[in-house]
Sequence to fold (423 residues):
Amino acid sequence: MDKEKNEQQSTENRTPGWVEWVRSIGIAVFLALMIRWPVAEPYKIPSSSMEPTFVPGDRIFVDKHVYGIRYPLNGFRIPFTRKTMWYADNYLKNGNDVERWDIVVFKSNEDRMEHDTLVKRVVGLPGERILIQDGKLLIDGEHVPTPDYLPEIYYTTPIQYNQSEGFAQIRDDKYSLIPEGHVFLMGDNSGSSRDARWFGFMPKHHILGRVTSIWWPIGRWRDLTGYTDSPWWYGFWITLGGWFVIRLFFGRSWSTRSDSLGGLVCKGEHLFVRFALGIPVPFTRRKMTKGRSLSCSDLVVYKSKEISKNYEDGRIGIVAGVAGDKVFLQDGKLLINDKPANGTLESMSFPKEGANDKYGRSKGKEFSTVPDGHIYILTEEGRAQEDSRCLGWIPESDIVGIATRVWWPPTHVRSMSKSIKKL
Fold:
């Protein structure tokens, strides 16, 4: 009766693995955000101000570390407002200097703009005097031709030009001398671009990064800086892609919440849990392939609603019996098929802990013989309610995988197969 009840409860408690997958996706999103802050980020071109280089709808990638690492959330626009939050006027870590003709994405210095993130080309650098005259760009009084690799650009004056003011339109230092730590930005389609001629010199710390490529649509793919041949580019995709492949098909990280197994695993350690029982179908509890069978002494992570209301709150334990094994705790010592366990379990004691501590306590088949598709798991003294002594036979479908290695913190890195003695 208890066996049937245990199996019924196990079946009822098996819920879809969507919670775990949502958590994993959350981690992936967090990693993506961490990458978008200092490494790279995609943007969409909203207007024609950079034609013919970019057209509306182009998707571009931005290298966000080339000029330095920005302070997190510096220049963050408060949701549902047009208020931008600034708390630093420099970089967390300085990088390369901005160069003329770089295309950059930046936060506007104009207040309450509908779009505060813009893309323009750098045409003037700190300390230079800039003037647009007869459609030509003059730097310190000398005409600066555009490089051959750039589209033909005719720099015009603003359409609504005010003769009393206008950056790069008037020789007065206020409008022509670029201060230190600032640059002058213009759109390639300058006749239809609201740029530095209106909003003036742009502080360098407003720059989010340098545009490296057009990545969508495919027909307009273009590498603008050679960034796609850099180690950063390959490293980004290899790291992200590798993480997804490993997480989906090979294993996952598991954080331990307490010391367990007599100090074999310590609180706060992160284990790599291998999907040894088969490759899972993403977002389900099904398996694509049949993995190897569990063996006594395997260190596994398992789940059960009987442990926690949160089904995803798993525990770690040692396989002490597989299907067909007869287990018995005699005076607190484990016998497997009438033979004393050796290795790690040999030195461990499991005294009876309450009325629900029934499995492995009787030699009757119902409480001693592990049924097909189930295993017998032990943890340590004082935790009978978390392992098979109280939970009963654990369905193999409730096994997350085999804990193979501690990978964090670095000072604790070790192989679990070397830490646990074989039975």
Q: What stands out?
A: The chain has two domains: 37-229, 251-419.
